[in-house]
Please model this.
Amino acid sequence: MENKFDSYVEELKSSKEWLDLDSLRKKTLKLYVFSWFLGVVLFILAFVILIFSFDLISFLGCLVVSVAIPLMLVRKYLKEFSAKYKGIVVPKLISDVITEFDSNADADSNQKKNKCQYYPTEKINFNLLASFPLFEKYPHKKTIYDGEDLFKGTIGETHFQFSDLVIKRNRDLIVVDQDFDFTIFRGLVFIADFHKDFDGTTTIRTRKGKQYSLLKALGSRITTISLQFDQMFTVHTTDEITARYLLPANMLERIMALRSIFPNKGIAICLHKGKLIISIHKHDFFEIGKASMPRSRNIVQTYTEISAILEMIDVLNLNLRIWNKK
Model:
């Protein structure tokens, strides 16, 4: 697939956006070096304090700062560079992904035209997120809600949106008389129409992979008709009859196929009042990772991530409308 994007990279190299990205890369590298130089200075200062004053608390404080500040600055600079990269590359890749979906669509079907819009600085609405029982424990007066890379659109009959999210909660630590922001969710959240209308709530969670403790599974735990599925997932529901209607054998197979797309990540799926939400934990999608000019493999990775997420609609067969679903 890299060969497919070689020409795209060559085309980018002659654009103003590419020159701007290269200028930002050089600036980022300088700031990167400065950040670690500052860290070394603070590290030396910490030992000077220890040698001449024997102040252990000041020494430890300066030691922590000498590591924390460079890491924070480097992360900030890389985030800015990655945002610039995504602004150049992602719109083109979305167009390619949608074109591929169009080419794979049944020519005789009456599907609506596939479309997807990208909003780099926006995120899924928090009220919408909190309307799903899976996330109902997250609203709190000390909750800090952030995110980026919002994608919204339609594939076939299915409306969808997804974005990276970071949710933190501010907590007071009495021992040190300080308050800190603790991450209580980091990952990608995908929301779409489900292909069946239903009431109640059914939650499916992988047995392996990092998951956040605040995510809530309502109702009673049930087993499915598939032993293989039950070895990979746990299922809780407020209505067992509805859950079995939503999860026939073919849907269980499709969810297992979805698991194969993200085999090492913690995944939670919540079916609630005709909607579907999927959370993929502990992964920051679409980032370039370092301050170097993107090559074909970087673009292939970003393309693959976007395509894999949108592919969930086909994998779960969400465009097949059942009975009263419109």
User: Anything to note?
Assistant: DSSP finds eight helices and nine strands in the chain. Strands lie at 115-119, 143-155, 158-173, 178-193, 201-206, 220-222, 233-237, 267-272, 275-281.
